[in-house]
Design brief:
This is DUF4148 domain-containing protein. This protein has a domain of about 45 residues. The chain is about 50% helix and about 0% strand. The longest helix has 21 residues.
Length: about 100
């Protein structure tokens, strides 16, 4: 019985990394993708040549935030203006009924 428990435990321990690897959806980045990301960071104001240990985390995080904000709206300056969808705006409280117009 003890050998059966040991065998099951061994199978579980050996199978756990395989299951963990099977669940990852992300593919490794290519060299070109890494270079493109570094170029985006440099365009956002990050310069790895002048980064010091004292300012490193803040510098890279600020550049990453600028890149994320730029990627959220696309390239260039943020778009302005409005658009219409053709539907009514949603009610603030969906459980509340809109008043009925009984005048005919």
């Amino acid at each position: 019985m003890k050998s059966l428990i040991k065998a099951v435990a061994l199978v579980v321990v050996l199978a756990a990394p395989v299951v963990a690897l099977a669940q990852s959806d992300q593919q490794p980045l290519t060299r070109a993708q890494v270079k493109a990301q570094l170029k985006q960071l440099e365009d956002a104001g990050y310069n790895p040549a002048v980064a010091t240990d004292a300012t490193y985390p803040a510098d890279i995080q600020a550049a990453e935030a600028r890149v994320a904000a730029q990627n959220a709206t696309g390239y260039g300056s943020p778009a302005g203006g409005t658009s219409q969808t053709g539907s009514d705006a949603p009610m603030a409280n969906p459980t509340q009924q809109a008043p009925m117009n009984n005048s005919q």
